[in-house]
Every structure is written in structure tokens, then in C-alpha cells.
Amino acid sequence: MTSASPIRTDAVVIGAGPVGLYQAFQLGLQELGVHVVEGLPHAGGQCAELYPGKPIYDLPGIPACSGQELTQRLLQQLAPLRIPLHLGQIVTSLQRLAPDRAEPSPRFRLATDGGLAFECDALVIAAGVGAFLPRKVPVPGLEAWEGRQVHYRDPPADIWTGQRIVVMGGTESAAALALQLADGGAADVTLLHRNDRFAIDAELDERLQSAIGAGWVRLCMGQPVGAIAAADGRLEALEIATADDRRLTLPLDLFMPRLGLNPRLGPIADWGLALERKHLVVDTEGYRTSEPGIHAVGDVNTYPGKRKLIVCGFHEATLAAFAIAQWLRPQERVVLEYTTTSTRLQRLLGVGPG
Ligand SMILES: Cc1cc2nc3c(=O)[nH]c(=O)nc-3n(C[C@H](O)[C@H](O)[C@H](O)COP(=O)(O)OP(=O)(O)OC[C@H]3O[C@@H](n4cnc5c(N)ncnc54)[C@H](O)[C@@H]3O)c2cc1C
Questions:
Q1: Which of 2, 196, 245, 271 has its CA 20 to 30 A from that of 226?
Q2: Same domain? 156 vs 124
Q3: What residues does the FAD/NAD(P)-binding domain cover (predicted)?
Q4: CA dihedral angle for residue 97, residue 100, residue 104, residue 110, rounded to 10 degrees
Q5: What angle do helix axes 172-183 and 202-214 make, rounded to 10 degrees?
């Protein structure tokens, strides 16, 4: 599905990790039209997904700051520039529209898995270690029911009311979802996991164990090995191999696996840009990839001396913004201005004198 009218803008940033967010800020200071597209339902990238509560100790001038707090601060800093953030949208395709920048038409068209399309003159890939995609259940044929009876992301609540649901996984999100469904109107909730040990915090484990003890959540220990279809084509049940080598049939209406997320560079690796060990090769002047108009910053890029640190990504984003501004306005000289003294920058940020 693609939206009828693409969003036309100067630049698109793929990824709302710390570097993508700062990239948008720097492009905004250059007064370019910017849209940010992020596959996860929230901003922050690895900081929010992998270590939200852990302190970071090497950000300049901030002795300690958690991944979550850094994300909030970056979003706060970005807010005055009113740059749209499109969350829960994985960029899946890149199309080249106009090979010659002298033409008035935009250069690139991007499409997302959620049906959005963008047309832009410059693209910044800030995709980090890749899009965080749900780990799939390795049962042959199961993909045929994805989006209908098999849901790797939370579907709207009205879908599950009165339904028999199997949640799979030993993760925090599996346990929390099973409890939420049991509490939220599902007819029957089974938590399918290979054993009775869960990688979750003590408080959640206590709530889960008491829900299992009270019979609100049923625990099924085993692995799915087959999908059983009804005569009308619906997914009727899963075939389970239990830990003690028995086979059983687990009937269901909905299957919600929560096996964790896997970062994947995915389609970006197929866009014909120069790669070195799955990283985009860039120059260190404007962090340009092998194709004019496409830049890459943060963990996704590589160049001699590259270090995957947030502060390095911030530097790259700053220089990339200058390079993009100059490229899009070849007649002008893009000059350096300080936020401390520039009334133009202060006006953009809504600070300073009137
Ligand atoms: C446990 C841990 C601790 C760390 N501690 C530190 C530290 O103390 N100091 C430090 O400097 N660094 C630290 N790092 C590294 C730091 O987190 C990374 O350098 C930083 O997150 C890179 O930011 P980024 O924006 O480039 O990429 P990411 O944070 O990976 O964000 C990339 C974003 O792009 C999105 N994305 C990818 N592909 C697509 C697509 N096709 N469409 C839409 N969205 C897409 C992803 O969903 C993701 O949100 C740590 C990393 C880890 C794992």
C-alpha cells in the first residue's frame, strides 16, 4: 500500500535514534524542510530499545544520563523546529526520480511498510544497526496468517476481545502482554514458552506467577512445530512439541509471538550504495555515501577511524547538515553561525530576544 500523495520535502532522515534526532535538529537549523521516519513506535534507537535505564557517562558536559533521558532531551531540543516524526514506519524502498539536480522534480522517492511515501532532494540514513524487526516463529506456512491471526506487533484492543489467544515468548513484552490480555477481555490466554523461566523483572514475574496460579493465564511449555488450518482456511491451532517429547494441539483464534527484536539493515543494504562489512561507506567532509544526495551518519556508516559513539554521530550529523544545505543551495554560501549570537538561529529555536 502506498499513500496517494507523497509528502514532498527537502530532506528525509531515516531513523530516530540519537543521531537521527540530532540530524533533524541540525537540518532544521539550516532551515530545510525535514521529515524523520522511524520503524519503532518510539524515538531513541538503541538508547531507548536496548538500554533505556542505563546511564551513559561520556556525553560532553553531562556526567550521567540514561538512554531514555537523552532521548527526551533530544526530542525537547528538536520540538521548536516542528519537524514531523513518522513513528512505526519502516522505510522499505528507495526510488531514484531525477538523476540531474538541475531538474525541478525531487530526486528520491521513499516508501514505508505503513503506506507513507516521501519525495525529497536529500536523504540521510541514520539507521544505526538497522530496523528493529520482530523475531519470527520458524513454523512453515505461518506467514500466511500474518496481520490477520498472527500478530507480531500489538493489534487494536477490539481485535482480541472474547478471543482465545496464544502469546509466545519468555520476554518482558510476552509476559506483560499475556497479563494485559487476561485483564482486558480475552476469552482465554495461553503463554507458550519452552520452560517456566522468564527473563523478566521480579515484580512482573510475581504478577505472572499469581495469574498462572489463579488460572487467568495458562502456561504451555513447548515449541510450536506446525500450523493447523481449518477447512475455511483460518488458523485453527498450533502443533506443539513439549519438553518431554510429546505432541499436543493448541487451539487458538489469535497468535501473538513476542520473541524479542532483531536489528536488520534490511532493504538499505540493497539500494546499491557502497558497503563495507554491512556499513555504508562515507567521506568525512559531508558524510556522503557513494551516491550524491544520500548521506549516512551514526552507527550505520564507516570511514577510516570510525568509532560507534553517540558523540561521533553528533559531529557527523552537524557536518552532513552543512553539506546538504550547501548542496541544495549551490548559489549561496552556507556560513557558520553560533546559536549563542545568531538571532536567526534563536528565532528558529524560539529563544533569545523577541
Ligand atoms: C548496551 C549499549 C550501551 C551503549 N553505551 C554507550 C555509551 O555509553 N556511550 C556512547 O556514546 N554510545 C553508547 N552505545 C552506542 C550508542 O547507543 C550508539 O552509538 C547510538 O545509539 C547510535 O545511534 P544511531 O542513531 O546511529 O543508531 P540507533 O540508535 O541504532 O538508531 C537507529 C534507528 O533507526 C531505525 N531504523 C533502522 N532502519 C530503519 C528503516 N529502514 N526505516 C525506519 N527506521 C529505521 C531503528 O529502528 C533505530 O531506531 C551503547 C550501545 C549499547 C548497545
A1: 196
A2: no
A3: 10-304
A4: 30
A5: 40
Q: Mean of the pLDDT values across residues 249-271?
A: 93
Which residue has better confidence, 167 or 245? 167
Q: What is the mean pLDDT of residues 257-269?
A: 90
Residue with cell string 512439541: 241
Lowest mean pLDDT among 1-5, 33-37, 220-224, 255-259: 1-5
Q: In the predicted model, what is the mean pLDDT of the chain?
A: 93
Above 80 in pLDDT, residue 157?
no
Instruction: Give the residue whose CA is nearest to atom 49 of ligand 1.
Output: 45
- Clarify whether residues 240 and 147 are in a common domain: yes
Question: How far does residue 116's CA lie from ligand 1's centre (Å)?
Answer: 23
Domain that holds residue 200: 136-259
**CATH number for the domain including 218?**
3.50.50.60
- 215, 242, 259 - which closes a domain: 259
Q: Which of 259, 276, 294 is the last residue of a domain?
A: 259
- For ligand 1, the distance from its centroid to the CA atom of residue 24, given in whole angstroms, is 15
Q: Residues lining ligand 1, judged by CB closer than 6 Å?
A: 14-20, 37-40, 45-47, 50-51, 56, 58, 90-91, 126-132, 266, 268, 298-299, 308-311, 313
